[in-house]
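Here is a typical protein record:
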Amino acid sequence: MLGNTFKSALLVSLMAFATGAMAEITLSATQDGSTINIDKALFDTDASKEFLATGKNPYIGNEEAIKKGKKIFNLYSCVACHGGKGEGAVGPGLIGANFRYAKNVTNKGMFETIWHGTNGGMGAKGFGLMAPDDGIKPDELLKVIAFIRSNSNVGTTGNE
């Protein structure tokens, strides 16, 4: 019996792999762990779709994406609170080793914190700096995170 269950599960997994179907990650609010619902249409690039499927940031280490991420970081004035490289200023440091929110050690966690906001009131999409219909897009946020990770001296990419 167990053998048949295993074979069925393996067959379903192989079918999903062959058709390109992938389970999506669940995004959770930093404040209370509630589910963050983001319109799937906003994940409109291959990189953002990969992130939604895996929680891994494909832009980590990509020099072109890091350069664009830096521009976006400056455009949205992240630098005013988090410093020129995310080292922290008025707001908390983003590069580690001591994250205000432990989940930010992962790219998924940092995405959740930036997108939905924090107890301090900052929020890219959810509550603060950028209106939900006119702010940063998921693909741009992944580039910002790649820029932040490029400045880290703790030896982590967030994709571990």
The domain at 25-150 is CATH 1.10.760.10 (Cytochrome Bc1 Complex; Chain D, domain 2). The radius of gyration is 17 Å.
